[in-house]
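User: For a benchmark we're assembling, each entry needs the component sequences followed by a predicted structure for the full assembly. Here are entry 17's components. Please fill in the structure.
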Amino acid sequence: MTITITAFERSPDRGRGLARDMRVRWALEETGQPYDVRLVSFKAIKEPPHLALQPFGQIPTYEEDDLALFESGAIVLHIAERHGGLLPGDANARARAIAWMFAALNTVEPPIFDRSLANILERDEPWYEKRLSALDGTIRKRLADLSRRLGEADWLDGEFSAGDLLMVSVLLRLKASSDILEEYPNLSAYVARGEARPAYKRAFDAQLAVFKAASVG
Amino acid sequence: MTITITAFERSPDRGRGLARDMRVRWALEETGQPYDVRLVSFKAIKEPPHLALQPFGQIPTYEEDDLALFESGAIVLHIAERHGGLLPGDANARARAIAWMFAALNTVEPPIFDRSLANILERDEPWYEKRLSALDGTIRKRLADLSRRLGEADWLDGEFSAGDLLMVSVLLRLKASSDILEEYPNLSAYVARGEARPAYKRAFDAQLAVFKAASVG
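Assistant: Structure for entry 17:
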């Protein structure tokens, strides 16, 4: 079985590990699965061959034998279900870890993603400061809730899981462009624990190598 | 096994089925699972007993014996995994149906949810028209992609699945406050097919009955 994922040939984050292939790379590294990467251009992701794999013209995609998947959350869950290391064996603990995956993507990520979009698209608008302040308020509410729930624990619910992998990934996007995360020391430490994992480092280095190679070429 | 979910005692959508308990009710109806509902106030969802179940102070929650879950996407997936009717038996088709669940919640819902929030919170801001127009542009991109992929099919990938359940739910939020959906006739028909399902109707009537009872009392 060969796993092939797609990633940007020149990531707009300049190799800072914020593109969504990073989450899939990290999951593959945590579960010890080798994988190939097919690099795609911004033009190619909007063309029919890629749209057949990813109807919304985004990365990453995941191909394995006759299965093709899209949506980084779904891909991480698929990897976690097939291989050990990202979901607990106990059925209830497994369901709770999956709940944290959805919480990362559907509750915590949207205002953080909006903030990074506003940062690019609305920076010169007269309302930018007010809009940013509204988004930061929403983000702080989410982080305060998350911080209270995490408390002094290392991970959100027992051992490191796919829920932590996605939550740390989402928080890293915030950390890259704001100091808000530092207002919550236990969340800063939580993200640092994620970044310190050997599998994270291997995944990060792999995506950075793509950017460096593209910059030289 | 008794299943108990939480819902608003007075839903801000006035019984139009847009609150996220609707998705869980629908999944329980599709799979034929009886359930109890515990109604909660806006005050109660921010207090410790509810926060213990739902760290972000939202509804719905799901309790079943000694398992407590939050996040409507995770709850729908849990129900779909335990009971027949919402996920295909074939492993690859099952993974693709789950990918559509994540696409509904992480790719299609965010701009639609932002639009309904902006509608409430930013209506009187000087930038409202421009912001709405930007959000509508993003929504149209997503819907154009979705429409092209759906084509003439009844459902997104084979039989009706939990992916369709969430996608229809997300599109219903848009339909409630905008005419954009009607620009895509195959998506309008897709949503109508969802609404016509007997399980959807039972779930809709159940949440509407809560709102009506609260309005009388």
